[in-house]
Design brief:
31% of the residues lie in helices and 16% in strands. The chain has nine helices and eleven strands. Strand 4, helix 2 and strand 5 form a beta-alpha-beta unit. The longest helix has 21 residues.
Length: 366
Amino acid sequence: MSEQDHESSDTSGTPEGPAAQEQPQPQHGAQVSTGTGSGTEPGTEPGAGTGADSDTATGADSDTGAGAGKTAEAPGVPDAAIPELVIISGMSGAGRSTAAKCLEDLGWFVVDNLPPALIPTMVELGARSQGNVARIAVVVDVRGRRFFDNLRQSLADLEAKHVTRRIVFLESSDEALVRRFESVRRPHPLQGDGRIVDGIDAERELLRELRGDADLVIDTSSLNVHELRAKMDAQFAGDEEPELRATVMSFGFKYGLPVDADLVVDMRFLPNPHWVPELRPFTGLNEEVSNYVFSQPSAKEFLDRYTELLQLIAAGYRREGKRYVTIAVGCTGGKHRSVATSEKLAARLAAQGVETVVVHRDMGRE
């Protein structure tokens, strides 16, 4: 069996630090993503951070809980339909992207690089989505500095409408930020012709007032990506355990291993139904084939023990903030044994409360 880490960071020119990576984006449009669990994040995870201890501070009204506050008032829209709003901001390189991805994995509708003037409009659209967009997270940072002056007015508009909102500010020390920018050999977005520290100083001054208004300030100077995710989960996941989503994929070894597999199971130790003439035309979806596969002495025992192993692995994934896992189940052609086993395994996972999707990659290729 093999495992790949699906925690990721963008390597196209962002400071690679312990907490997260930040990437300057074009200012001409917003980037939108939803927490639908549609896939994993490709790439590699920054792991340079050390030290379990970190400073966590709270800004103004830091004891405000998620969901606290008044309900927005919108003409013709039920109060219950007004979405909860979180604004993520902070220093470049301090972990905004990781914080946003954490909320996305928790089911929030995440909008990156949205001009602050459009935040009230975004909330109104969410309110009219008939409950489909119940929680919105907006990343506001120095990349949108042309629009940054509009943020104060947007916050005033939201307050006038009694919209529930929280501001999360990601902070880090100058030393940590310089190290992260130097590790990827990229300039700070505000340094211009100066040094990295000049850009950091300019950004701190630009964000000073917003930091003072923050409901939650997280210092990521000594946090790694998992520790930052744990802090975000503690604030926004409530008492619910982080959800794990699994894809169980059958495949044929003769067509190659799935490149996105975290765990690989080889079912070729079982007798092949291909050599049973009356079963050869069918697939593992047929009851006759499934019964044949699991009539073998070791088949059910394997399924029982592997399900127990997955319980242990899933608990570890949740602790580490891993939200997606792909389990590849293989046999020779991906038609009989792997298909039947994938169906049984997916049913076991679903019964344990794991959101599971079954994919039969190579069935029908013969």
